[in-house]
Amino acid sequence: MTLPLTIRNVEKSIDDFKLKINELSFEEGTITAVIGTNGAGKSTFFKMMMNLVKQDSGDIDVFGKSVNGEDESWKQLVAYQAQTLIGCDPFTGEQLRKLMAELYPSWDEQLFRRFCEKLRIPLNKKVHKLSPGVRTKLNLALNIGKNTSLLILDEPTAAMDIPSRNDFLQFLLELMESGDKTILIASHQADDIKKLADYLVFIQNGEVTKMLEKDSLIFSYRLFWLKEEPPVSRIPGEIKRTYKKVILSNQPDKTLDYLTTHNLAIADEQIPTLEDIIHEVLMEGEMINV
Ligand SMILES: Nc1ncnc2c1ncn2[C@@H]1O[C@H](COP(=O)(O)OP(=O)(O)OP(=O)(O)O)[C@@H](O)[C@H]1O
């Protein structure tokens, strides 16, 4: 079966910025979150997939077609939501809807209408008269209406109010029930990532990590609240110590083994939040063991 997206040995430099992706394959029916600090290269990564930025080397294939090739038929299978809606200011949502419906054979009018209703999007106002949040929602409605197999979303919830964000997340999850959609999403919102993603890829020091299963990543970390401060400065698996007695481990079995063998009593044991794990990976350069 042809995969929605495969990437091999891709490198890109812009001035002193470098981005490297060794090998990634995205499977149908999955949502993958791309996570990185500001300026890490998430948008550049997405733009390369859409052939809006050309990679210096390596291959990117969308549904088996090279994005740099002459055959551009793959473009009708992908909807890409950039961070801003460019060139649409003089048009109303209704005019843009008409245009997209003509351009995309897979356009789903009912899906579009349902999304607009759910997120309370006015279609009769010109884009330049909409608030940034409503503009983002209209952009999303247009991309969702395309009903493509692959959906690439660059920080879609950044300007959204809380009810709209919840409705949007719910809508995406319902959309995934068909099993034939693939979504890539860049987000800084731990809650979005927690609710949506099956897989995560991080951009660490200019390099995109392998694909990590979200739940496996979460369960590979553990917080141990000890009754006493350990007698050594670092115990096996320990990656961080707070309040002298709280140990964050990325090898919980090893840590637990040491604590048991050395009679160090545990007051409590917890799975850390996804937000804490993301912080460790991005800010402390924590190596991923999964
Ligand atoms: N047109 C450009 N000219 C020069 N440098 C650029 C250009 N586009 C991107 N860059 C550089 O590429 C790097 C990655 O930028 P990119 O926008 O991909 O990051 P990002 O992870 O999406 O950031 P954010 O989270 O802030 O949206 C940055 O260091 C940026 O300065």
Helical content class: 25-40%
Regions with pLDDT < 50 over 5+ consecutive residues? Answer: none
Give the DSSP E fraction (strand runs of 2 or more residues): 25-35%
Described by strand count, sense and barrel closure, the largest sheet is: 11 strands, mixed
Query: If classified by CATH, what would the architecture of the largest domain be?
Result: 3-Layer(aba) Sandwich
What ligands are attached or bound here? adenosine-5'-triphosphate
What is the first-to-last residue Cα distance?
Answer: 27 Å
- Global mean pLDDT: 93
Q: Outline, from the CA principal axes?
A: elongated
Q: Assign the CATH class of the largest domain.
A: Alpha Beta
Overall structural domain count: 2
Strand tally: 15
Keywords: ATP-binding, Nucleotide-binding, Transport
InterPro entries: AAA+_ATPase (IPR003593), ABC_transporter-like_ATP-bd (IPR003439), ABC_Transporter_VariousFunc (IPR051782), P-loop_NTPase (IPR027417)
GO molecular function: ATP binding; ATP hydrolysis activity
Domain ABC transporter: 5-230
